[in-house]
Design a protein that fits this description.
Number of helices: 15
Oligomer: single chain
Strand content: 5-15%
Largest sheet: 7 strands, parallel
Order of helices and strands: HHHEHEHHEHEHEHHEHEHHHH
Structural class: alpha/beta
Distance between the termini: 82 Å
Shape: globular
Strand order of the largest sheet: 3-2-4-1-5-6-7
Number of strands: 7
């Protein structure tokens, strides 16, 4: 018997639709206007442009930033660091909610360490700060370190400026908490605070002098329950120690405060300390001078980055480096000799 004339699945033949990718590029002028009007969606898109490595995105991102520069610089920039487990995200959510509920606009730039194997990051801080992320007066942007030392992203400064242009008057920058290479963060914020814990051994011996000389305030975190008495003792010890160290900011003596993000105690005292710090810095003009110095340091660090990128972008440079690496492994040349050959030919 003859078969039934049909398509392979019994359905009549149809014309296959072709999907065309739509151009979702937002004009620079529109993006500038939306960000200046406080749109969180467009602020996120502007930051994505800044972080992009695509040449066209880089140009667009820099143009948006240039357009918005007159609206920047009107925030208090606070850097927050501490060892893993100190409760940085918990503190930032509690502190940020207090400020947002008081009428402030709070932007949180949370930096997540990138994997040295895959290059990826979890970027889970926004999920961990769930309540703050839902607040209309807050904006949270997690970014990977992408190989940058110092616990921040390479574009953190530019991201911070966009947030200021969008109307955020308090910028909180959470570092990865490496503890020893936080000088980059110190060079981009006004007030730098360190979160520490009690009950982790000899607190004062365990804390390095280098990081202590960078801070404007120390938060003894998780000061609640059975840990409250020990936390108050640790606060007193840090206050005594800070008097013997050279302050990071001219005319300001760093202090130590007990804080519980669970019980919501000590948060207002932290904000009062930040405001007192700003008043002191405004009086002796150190606030403006520090920001000018930070801008120059930023300029010089970008020169260094550009020189490295330009060096490796030269034709045949990567192959030359690979050859010298093989020579090093064979013992045919010293490291210093390889560098000399790389630059002098």
């Amino acid at each position: 018997m003859d078969g039934i004339a049909s398509s392979h699945d019994g359905m009549s033949a149809t014309v296959r639709k072709r999907f065309v990718k739509k151009d979702r590029t937002i004009p620079v002028e529109e993006l500038t206007e939306k960000i200046s009007n406080g749109s969180r969606l467009h602020l996120a898109k502007g930051i994505t442009l800044l972080e992009s490595i695509t040449p066209a995105d880089k140009i667009a991102g820099q143009q948006v930033l240039l357009n918005l520069l007159p609206k920047t610089g009107n925030s208090i920039r606070i850097g927050i660091t501490g060892v893993p487990g100190a409760g940085k995200s918990t503190f930032i959510e509690a502190f940020g909610l207090m400020l947002a509920n008081a009428g402030h606009h709070v932007a949180v730039l949370a930096i997540d360490p990138s994997s040295t194997i895959t290059g990826g990051s979890i970027l889970g801080d926004k999920t961990r700060m769930e309540e703050l992320a839902r607040h209309p007066g807050a904006f949270i942007r997690p970014s990977p370190t992408a190989g940058t030392l110092g616990g921040v992203h390479k574009k953190s400064r530019e991201t911070m400026l966009l947030c200021e242009a969008a109307g955020y008057d308090v910028i909180l920058i959470e570092t990865v908490g490496v503890g020893q290479s936080e000088t980059v963060v110190r060079g981009m914020v006004d007030f730098f605070m360190l979160l520490v814990l009690t009950g982790a051994g000899d607190e004062l011996q365990g804390m390095k002098k280098g990081i202590m000389e960078l801070v404007d305030g120390i938060i003894v975190h998780k000061a609640d329950g059975d840990n409250l008495k020990l936390a108050k003792k640790t606060v007193r010890e840090y206050r005594q120690l800070l008097h013997f160290l050279q302050p990071a900011s001219l005319g300001w003596t760093p202090t130590s405060l007990p804080v519980s993000s669970i019980k919501l105690t000590g948060l207002e005292e932290v904000w009062e300390t930040v405001l007192a710090f700003k008043a002191t810095m405004d009086t002796n003009t150190f606030w403006a001078e520090r920001r000018q110095s930070q801008t120059k340091d930023w300029f010089r660090s970008m020169i260094n980055d550009r020189l490295i990128d330009t060096f490796f972008a030269e034709p045949g440079r990567k192959e030359q480096v690979a050859e010298l690496e093989q020579a090093l492994l064979k013992g045919d040349i010293t490291v210093a000799g390889a560098v000399e050959r790389l630059f002098l030919g």
